[in-house]
Description:
By secondary structure, chain A is mainly α. Chain A contains 13 helices and 2 strands, in the order H-E-E-H-H-H-H-H-H-H-H-H-H-H-H.
Amino acid sequence: MVNxxxxxxxxxxxxxxxxxxxxxxxxxxxxxxxxLFFTLYLSFHEWDMLSPxxxxxxxxxxxxxxxxxxxxxxxxxxxxFIYVGSNLVLMPVIALVIALLLKxxxxxxxxxxxxxxxxVVTSVVAMSLxxxxxxxxxxxxxxxxxxxLGLPPQGWTMAPSQSLPSILIVLLWQGAGYYAIIxxxxxxxxxxxxxxxxxxxxxxxxxxxxxxxxxxxxxxxEFVLVMxxxxxxxxxxxxxxxxxxxxxxxxxxxxxxxxxxxxxxxKMGKASSMAVVLFVLVMSFSVIQIKIMRRxxxxxxx
Amino acid sequence: xxxxxxxxILSSIKTPDEIISIPITWVPSHPQWANYSMIWSLIPLGRxxxxxxxxxxxxxxxxxxxxxMAGYALAKFTFRGRETLFFIILSTMMVPFFVxxxxxxxxxxxxxxxxxxxxxxxxxxxTAFGIYLVRQFSLGIPSEIMQAARIDGASEWKIYYRIIVPxxxxxxxxxxxxxxxxxxxxxxxxxxxxNEKTMNTLPLGLNMLRNAYSSQAxxxxxxxxxxxxxxxxxxxxxxxxKYFVQGITMTGIKG
Lengths: 302, 255
């Protein structure tokens, strides 16, 4: 008897729960699940979006096969990897340094936090335009600054060899504060007792850092690295605004090339196949990263 | 770190001559504050602001509503497949937007939502990140509260908006700020579906400004526009800094 009543109560709760979930689930069905499969479908077809969908030509794996003979695709893919790799190495270091500074500063800590976080909350488009101006070889302050130091002016975003590094600077500038705050939270979670004990044992700052700070920051670093990779693989706006991938695709990335292929060249099938490649890349990267970190963590657990 | 901001503000009040002077002018000799009033007539800045404010606020409200409800349901109700569902929702965060871009454009086009507010809003109305955040927080709400209210005869809906939502307030505040700041600068999606100039959002408008006034000498107006675009986020952030930081740390350390 009691069981019967409980079951009907629970099912009415379940009904309520599902009602709460319905808007979100409906959204995901329409704006996520369907598009996901549609992209997969398109990647096996040729379509320009102007003719009706029914006329899209099925071409099997040709899109994918053709990708690697497309020199622009290879170039943008390579660039994407360079961006991701560089960010994975540089960003955590910069962010951690900033976090350490933020933690130990006694003078107006909230002001410094604001300063480092400003690039994160301000419009990427607006600040990209500012950076474009800063990098301008003729009228920009950066070259002017170099001239004042007696150094030769650089091409920056206008030079094929320097456009990618220049964008990298912008990406680091825009992202460091965000990851610094995450590190800051991680740092604040480390109990002071450990540091005090280490000090009693005669450890210096560097030793404390290596033996206490870094190990305790492992989960944070794990999270940060995955986030950096996932975000950098999809970078678009700064590159679109500042260089539009140029000169000659030297700063172009997969995301921007997908956009160009779809909306400038109207090759939906090809763009979809590139999107699938991007998807697989991001997924594998995240999975591999997490696995490596887990393995490292387990290896050192006592 | 703040050099770009300083440069932006200084350049926004320069004259065209100062922009293209060689050697460059660091600080303008006659600050052209008039630029800030001129720009409103130069480009439809007011309209762009309006578009941005309207779409961003609406999206934020939608996100708060859906995340709050879904997070609550996933945290405080037990039903079969709950964890699987949560995992699936979570996994949507790993899918790059580019994978959905073309079909989303197709859908929006078919629905006649190009160049419209709803086209800008609908595909952004729900975010798994928000659901995750609220769900994590809601786990900590004691179930006794709900049970007591049920015994008192309250309906589930009443329990939700009378009891649960106020309890979720701080998390929702953090989420709201996140969503606002993120959506304010949304660029790719508006770029794809907006062609009609009157429907431009601020980021889109700025980009268009750069294209329309490509001569170097007009950089000062571009900087003025950028400054104006940056101010709302600045205000929102400075006044609500506490919640913002709280929101980020919530995602970073609770695995």
